[in-house]
Amino acid sequence: MKVNNWLNFIQSLLCPSGCLLCGEAGNFKLQFCPACYRSLPFNRHTCPICALPMPPGISPDILCGRCIKKQPPYTQSFAPLRYELPVSNLISGLKFHRRLYLAEPLARVLTDCMGEPFIRPDLIIPVPLHPLRLQERGFNQSLELSRVVARHYHIPVNWKICRRVRHTQAQSDLSEKARQKNLRQAFEVYGDIQGAHLVLFDDVITTGATVTELSKTLKKAGARRIDIWAIARTPGW
Asked: Which terminal residue of the chain, N or C, has fewer Cβ atoms less than 10 Å from its own Cβ?
């Protein structure tokens, strides 16, 4: 078998050629057919700071109740999808079932919806996993997603500058208050970020506890501005 045929064969095993949801012919870049792409749960009306889904028709500059009560340490968030079916299945497939081919189409939904960032950041930092969790999973899904976005926008991505130094219980098992307590002093910065505009990249924003704690750590280390980019946002907590 020729080299090109081998490459095509391997690619067909690793990455389905049709729409990820229905199997019909899909857009080469997005890997969704037009109908399935339009049916995705897009997060169109959001709090401008935390990206929490808001009622349709609300002014785009209106903050959610949480951000009014206590503004987070980051400037704004962008998450193009709500964490609902079928998006939740796709992200779970990537995260827990090692379907790494899903990183590309999920990240391309973000770039397709965002377009050109109005204010380009200096650096993208994927939310880090503790070394034990990384060894257990074999990869960091936030890093895999952020690499696609970083290539698209020609923005550097650095996964070593911030590390998770305390092994914490899985956030999905905890209440909101427990999540906040679970993450205290969990991160450390290993590099110069003085005056930098940073993007924290995660797969899903749930309560925002992880990106809040990480943003606090980065601000203490000298970051000037922090934005949050994620694939999906939970509708509420």
From this structure: N
